[in-house]
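ENTRY TYPE: paired fold submission
RECORD: A
CONTENT: sequence, then structure tokens
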Amino acid sequence: MTTAPAFTIGIEEEYLLVVPESGALRTAPEKLLEDLKEALGDQVSTEFLGCQVEVGTGVCATVADARADLSRLRGAVARIARGHGLAPIAASCHPWGNWSDQERTEKPRYDKLDTDLGAVARRMLIGGMHVHVGIEDRDTRIAVMNSLTPWLPVLLALSASSPFWQGEDTGLASWRVSVFDSMPRTGLPPRLADWAAFEATTGTLVELGIIEDASKIWWDLRPSAAFPTLEARICDVSPRIDEALMLAALVQALARMIWRGMSRDEPVPDPLVLSENRWRAQRYGTAEGLIAGDPARIVPMKLVVDDMLNRLAPDLDHFQSASDAEKARGVVTGGTSAARQRGIRDMALEQGASDREALVQVVTSLIDAFDS
């Protein structure tokens, strides 16, 4: 077994800015961005669309450390946005916002994305959550990536927060995934032999001038191009900070559990089953099960999560994050953010609200959840 990785974590979240009274999206004023930079420095940045901002925690040893930093970041964004008459929401799609109405941030990096990808990039009115796990050895990073990939549908199901798109109920728990999949070099990562294989794969695209570097590889799980980390990118962003930290706890513990078992041979998962599970998570969230077992069957999500938490128990104890991860059971029984948003919309409609009024109530609930 190799020397134990650090298994530090870092969390990145993307937020949308709205007008509290109407719930409508709004481009961030330049002064708001200046105030955010003054308060948070390099921990905040703009995004491709002007109505979005992104934050990133520092390197954290534990979920408790991440909670402190992410709470500070969310609190500062909410406070500064309020000073400019706006509010942030942490949901992966705005219930009715139209991407074609949004202003694009003017930066050389975004200019190139627009040139390279056209409307595919301009359509990215979505927000995600990324969890970095520190794994210094490059080959170990790839080995953990291979074995963590089958767990990605569980993380997606638990995080689903994007049921609406341009005023319509999409019928999906995570519409964000459908939008993001229109980008190139997305989806589940391929199974790779080692770091050399990763460099050979991405190096071909760099040598041909298709991409500048591996940061333009947008798999659901990838070795970071900037840090010695494995970056889980599958999750919708979570309106509630407790659920964001639940996901971070699971990613950190999964990485350690996989590292502990690296000396054991594991069956290679069926790519078609993996792809189908990703779709089931995207479509149903936690309301339906995933394919698992031998012989294969559809296992209810409660049993999937119970099995995952049982396997992770030693690792959650190691990081003292069992109480954070246990919130996954509550998501299964109480519903994902997507289910809660639908419930708020449906109740408003039953009480006589119009379609838009009902969706405004959804946005209000997302504002309330942001830093609570």
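RECORD: B
CONTENT: sequence, then structure tokens
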Amino acid sequence: MNPTPQTAPRTRVRDIALLWGLVTALLWLVETVDFLLPADLDRYGIIAWNPERLPHILLAPLLHSGYDHLSANTVPLLVLGALAAWTGLTRFAAATGVIVLISGLGVWFTSPPHTVTVGASGVVFGYFGYLVARGALQRSLRDILIAAAVVVVYGSILWGVLPQQPGISWQAHLFGLLGGLTAAWMLRTPRPPVATT
């Protein structure tokens, strides 16, 4: 049975809540395993300029340097990720893939050699850029309002794209943001042609 207009938003909220519940549980499970076992999972992060570790750009967002690092990323990841997923999980999955690839490749190419980078902050910056750019490109009232709210609440994170504090990857932030902007442009919905009389 197809959802009615009244039940469709409920189904979407349920799907997004389930998705982010699972993602959050996975992130915290990975960090707990890393904490409890002598696994040293952080070595599977992005190691700059190491060709053998290039595939690790897909794993790095799942890894964190500790619970403080993970805690700092969890809430913005949930909020921005849920907003990014609102227009559909297929488009959201594609946007996430673009963000992870561009952020990871940017870190791999621009970080000092042999530096190990872990964390989901590049994805956080990517969702921020994606939501803001989507509002500018789609120009629907919903997307514009979401973009405005995101800028008001999270706009200060943009300082994170500048080199500031040692040990924090501004490269992940910058290229994550660029990945989000790219994803919004790639996945934009073409506007219908305007007829003139």
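NOTES ON RECORD B: Residues 8-36 form the longest helix (29 residues). The beta strands are 46-47, 116-117.
STATUS: closed
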